[in-house]
Design a protein that fits this description.
The chain is of the alpha+beta class. It has 9 helices and 20 strands.
């Protein structure tokens, strides 16, 4: 597989100061599997809907992701903010998983079921509940079972109060901070459980990002999502996920409903070694929710397969260097760049290395420089970091002066052209 980099844009500069911006370079590859990879000459924006993906579901917002690579197989209004309802419990669960992993919380720790948790999320609330008794103490392990399997609002409130002191602090500080750390830039939270609140907003894309993270980073906890029932306070409740009993390989994750958000779910299944994640939201009927999620997963398993575009540590291309003893630095991907493609081999892919540059010297070997993005039919299918394959030292004073003058002239020329 050969690579050729084509400069697609240059950085804009102002007199006296170097202004750094995004540079995109296209990668031309020969793909033996029969697909076609195009090196585009202009920016490509992710489409709201995959127009030629061969699938058009009924859900107002939806996304289908291959878990291993993060490759997006289908999306529809995937960045539209909506009320996530009980699917938001995944955020609370992840915060707890992460706290346990860091040693800040133990599964054996016990939290009290406050009157607030009991009234808002317990038996008197009329919503999904674990039926935890007021003023009782429940272990974190059992509260996680109640929140995940029974969708207990009381369990989520108890976890939030036990960790942060209050549910509002937990939502504002713990959930929001963790979401941003995971790259979920749009999500906002007003409580811990998804009960109606104007502050609760998420996109199906960010729910998919979260689900993938839980699956890959917390396998020991992910198994909870596949448990089909849980009994607490002598009340046995089945898992609310309809896929667990209707689809081969289904083992997660979470359903949700509020009047504002409609019916939605985050689901996942494994077949023939491939795991897919589906998120749908905004449907008007619980049966439609289950049918739509299953239909999308089955379509993905039936029509796609994984192909490797770039091997681990294979050179992807070059990034321009400013003020270095070399004018450019070789770039590699530390992990294989894989993408799900149609089995018929007719996908049209666009791949670009995108970085903030020119990259200032010195450059350390292994330093992340940018990302390689692969688009399929106008939608970003996968994004993988790329790193410097070598160290680049600081160049001579003359080299830095020449680079500065060159980039200044190019910036002035570009600025003048944009005014025409």
């Amino acid at each position: 597989m050969a690579f050729r980099l084509i400069p697609l844009g240059r950085t804009r500069f102002t007199a006296g100061a170097l202004a750094r911006g995004l540079i995109a370079t296209a990668i031309a590859m020969s793909l033996s599997w029969g697909g076609v990879l195009y090196a585009a000459n202009q920016s490509v924006q992710g489409a709201k809907k995959a127009e030629d993906a061969g699938f058009d579901g009924d859900a107002p917002t939806a996304i289908l992701i291959e878990a291993s690579s993060g490759s997006v197989l289908f999306e529809k209004n995937a960045d539209e903010l909506r009320a996530p309802s009980s699917m938001m419990k995944l955020v609370t669960a992840e915060v707890v998983f992460n706290a346990i992993k860091k040693g800040d919380v133990k599964l054996t720790d016990e939290y009290r079921i406050s009157e607030n948790a009991w009234r808002k999320g317990g038996a008197p609330s009329g919503g999904s509940t674990m039926f935890a008794a007021i003023n009782s103490k429940v272990s974190v392990d059992d509260l996680l079972h109640g929140a995940i399997i029974q969708s207990g609002n009381d369990a989520c409130i108890a976890l939030a109060e036990g960790i942060a002191g209050s549910e509002r602090i937990f939502a504002a500080d713990f959930m929001t901070k963790r979401a941003r750390e995971l790259g979920m830039t749009k999500s906002t939270f007003g409580n811990s459980n998804g009960l109606p609140d104007p502050g609760n907003k998420m996109t199906v894309r960010e729910l998919g990002i979260l689900a993938r993270h839980i699956i890959l980073d917390f396998p020991e906890f992910y198994k909870l999502f596949g448990e089909k029932e849980f009994t607490w306070n002598k009340i046995r409740q089945p898992n609310r996920n309809p896929l667990l009993n209707s689809m081969e390989g289904a083992d997660g994750l979470k359903t949700g409903y509020t009047k504002e958000g409609g019916y939605g779910m985050v689901g996942s299944a494994v077949q023939n070694g491939t795991r897919l994640i589906v998120v749908v939201n905004g449907l008007e009927d619980p049966e439609d929710r289950a049918t739509e999620a299953k239909k999308m997963l089955e379509w993905g398993f039936r029509n796609f397969e994984t192909r490797t575009l770039i091997a681990a540590d294979q050179q992807v291309g070059y990034a321009k260097v400013f003020g270095g003893d070399s004018r450019s630095v070789k770039l590699v991907a530390k992990t294989p760049v894989k993408v799900m493609v149609h089995k018929n081999g007719n996908d049209k892919l666009i791949a670009r290395v995108v970085y903030n540059g020119p990259v200032r010297a010195p450059v350390q070997e292994g330093q992340q420089v940018g990302v390689v993005r692969v688009w399929r039919s106008g939608n970003i299918a996968v994004e993988t970091p790329v790193y410097a394959a070598e160290a680049i030292g600081t160049g001579s004073t003359m080299r830095r002066a020449i680079d500065g003058a060159s980039e200044l002239v190019i910036g002035m020329f570009r600025a003048g052209a944009e005014k025409l």
